[in-house]
Design brief:
Blueprint (H helix, E strand, L loop, with lengths): L2 H13 L34 H15 L3 H15 L2 H14 L2 H14 L4 H13 L3 H15 L5 H6 L5 H17 L4 H13 L3 H10 L8 H12 L3 H14 L4 H13 L3 H14 L4 H13 L3 H13 L4 H14 L3 H9 L7 H14 L3 H14 L4 H14 L3 H14 L4 H13 L3 H14 L4 H14 L3 H14 L4 H13 L3 H14 L3 H13 L3 H14 L4 H11 L5
Helix pairs in contact: 1-2, 2-3, 3-4, 3-5, 4-5, 5-6, 6-7, 7-9, 9-10, 10-11, 10-12, 11-12, 12-13, 13-14, 14-15, 15-16, 16-17, 17-18, 18-19, 19-20, 20-21, 20-22, 21-22, 22-23, 23-24, 24-25, 25-26, 26-27, 26-28, 27-28, 28-29, 28-30, 29-30, 30-31, 30-32
């Protein structure tokens, strides 16, 4: 080996991936893998020809100068030419770091082939094969690791199938079953299969599998998945003791405590959840995500002063600052200080919270007689953020509509549609506003324009069908539209509600009741409660009708639709 080239290459390779800045779209490595980047033993390279050494040196220098295309291309080329395991590994690391899927797969397979006893190489190959949808090959590589090591992670295989088709998921499930026949007690295989079942909508099967194979000591992920499945199945109360027991055995595990606190929130046990978040923030004072969660729980509990304190801390720490300003604005609104709220909302920069802040500003301005200022604010926002122009038009229209200025709202939507004639969201919004203004001709025109371009648009089909059933006598036409929407989204409670209502209007009380019961089981919405109660009332089941209305009022005591229905049928709002 040329000594000078060898020395230069050694110096370059010692820099490692630490000199390669990640591509802005590249996935970041999980925290628990961060320590894997620095190998315990130095990498040993074979003897290379001068042209190979030169190519690798150029690659390293290119990486240091942010020319990742050259670095990756050279390493991939030399991995294929030399068949050297160390070069293959380095090429794979760079490709993975940059999020380059095809080179990552090719170099992982080279690394695994050239270093067959290296378990990390086999695992890398398995991961890349799974990402490429080659699940059987991936499982074969993973089994090598399983047989040699006995403790590896199969969850990535299930997760990688989340966006694939049904036949692919079925095939992967069969692969898991084959491995489980060989290793029936392997916790990682059981966990991976449970994940896959859950992704396939088989929550009960996934839960049964995990419950029949309790997690071993130190296994946290299966417990968290069990808790999540219980919540999905509306059995959140059962998740609490499961998490409490796990916390008792693993008192320092942050994930368990955080999930316990979140479960309390979902069960509406806000004071208990708040106490848990207070304890977590005390234990992890640098974790601003926890601080933000505590602020939100305090808001939910209407502890305005405490929430404000936590949010101000976030602003001072420049952490979640936009979300903090948004919620500080909401606190100012609760305290009837609209001007202070406007100042907070104005501090929200473009990002996830920007549109919500724009809506609140517009709503406050219109409500306080400053409509022109609201329109000017949103016009300036559309100029500054052209990618959000359509949403900002919708926000302006909504602000006017919220304050009973439907003519102005309609004018804004007409202006927006002239500028963006192909946007279906604008058309749908104008249709719903037209219905509110009792302009059924405009509503139908806009919805049929949507359906002319998207005949399978279930939302437009349902909206048109329901309105025809509720506001006209075109019942047969309405029913055809609703049934088509139901064929597209058979479990949608809004469509089931429409089907029940059109059957009621047609006099088919039993069919109406069946559809509305299904809708109410899936969504205890006040309008669904009003419809189901009315059908039960007409069917002579008046005691049950009152029970349904009571349940609807518990969920939404200020529902105008529900109260009007009760008063119309009973003569009083008192039940």
């Amino acid at each position: 080996m040329n000594r000078r080239y060898a020395l230069l290459l050694a110096l370059a390779l010692l820099q490692g991936c630490q000199n390669l800045a990640p591509h802005q779209n590249a996935p970041q490595a999980p925290a628990d893998e961060a320590t894997e980047e620095a190998p315990a033993e130095p990498v040993v390279y074979g003897s290379f020809k001068p042209d190979t050494l030169y190519s690798l040196l150029v690659a390293e220098l290119a990486g240091q100068r942010n020319r990742f295309d050259i670095a990756l291309a050279n390493y991939v080329d030399q991995a294929e030419k030399t068949q050297d395991s160390a070069v293959s590994e380095r090429a794979y690391r760079i490709a993975e770091y940059l999020g380059a899927d095809e080179p990552a797969l090719d170099t992982a397979l080279l690394w695994a082939k050239n270093d067959p006893d290296n378990l990390e190489a086999q695992r890398a190959a398995a991961i890349q094969l799974a990402r490429a949808g080659r699940y059987d090959e991936s499982m074969a590589s993973m089994e090598k690791v399983l047989q040699a090591k006995g403790d590896t992670h199969f969850d990535f295989l299930a997760l990688s199938a989340a966006e694939t088709d049904q036949s692919t998921r079925d095939g992967l499930l069969q692969s898991f079953d084959r491995l489980l026949n060989k290793h029936p007690a392997n916790g990682q295989l059981i966990f991976g299969k449970a994940l896959l079942l859950n992704q396939d909508g088989k929550s009960e099967e996934a839960l049964e599998l995990l419950e029949s194979h309790p997690a071993q000591d130190g296994e946290i992920a299966p417990i968290l998945l069990r808790a999540r499945l219980l919540q999905t199945l509306d059995r959140g109360d059962e998740a609490l003791p499961l998490l409490r027991n796990a916390i008792r055995d693993n008192p320092e595990d942050k994930r368990l405590r955080l999930n316990y606190a979140r479960t309390l929130v979902e069960l509406d046990r806000i004071p208990e959840a708040k106490a848990e978040f207070v304890s977590l923030v005390q234990q992890y004072p640098e974790d601003d995500d926890l601080r933000y969660s505590l602020a939100l729980v305090s808001l939910e509990n209407q502890d305005w002063d405490e929430a404000e304190g936590y949010l101000q801390e976030l602003v001072e720490r420049d952490a979640n600052a936009d979300a903090a300003h948004l919620n500080l604005g909401r606190i100012r609104e609760q305290r009837n200080d609209p001007q202070a709220a406007l100042r907070e909302y104005a501090l929200v920069a473009p990002g996830p919270d920007y549109l919500a802040a724009q809506l609140r500003q517009a709503d406050i301005l219109v409500a306080n007689g400053r409509a022109r200022e609201a329109s000017r604010l949103l016009a300036e926002a559309r100029e500054a953020q052209p990618d959000s122009a359509i949403q900002l038009y919708l926000i302006e229209s909504e602000a006017y509509s919220n304050n009973d200025k439907t003519a102005q709202a309609d004018q804004v939507l007409h202006q927006a549609i002239q500028r963006y004639p192909d946007d279906l969201n604008l058309l749908y919004s104008r249709a719903m506003l037209a219905e509110k203004r009792n302009d059924l001709a405009q509503m139908e025109k806009d919805l049929r324009a949507i359906l002319a371009r998207e005949p399978e648009n279930a939302m437009a089909l349902n909206a048109l069908g329901y309105t025809l059933a509720d506001r006209t006598t075109r019942f047969d036409e309405a029913k055809r539209l609703i049934e088509k929407a139901l064929s597209i989204t058979p479990e949608d409670p809004a469509v089931l509600d429409s089907l029940g209502w059109v059957n009621y209007r047609m006099g088919n009380l039993d069919d109406a009741e069946r559809a509305l019961r299904k809708a109410f089981e899936r969504l205890s919405d006040p309008e669904v409660a009003a419809h189901l109660g009315e059908v039960l009332w007409a069917n002579g089941k008046r005691r049950e009708a009152r029970q349904v209305w009571n349940q609807g009022l518990e969920n939404s005591s200020d529902s105008t639709v529900l109260r009007q229905t009760i008063r119309r049928l009973t003569g009083s709002e008192a039940l």
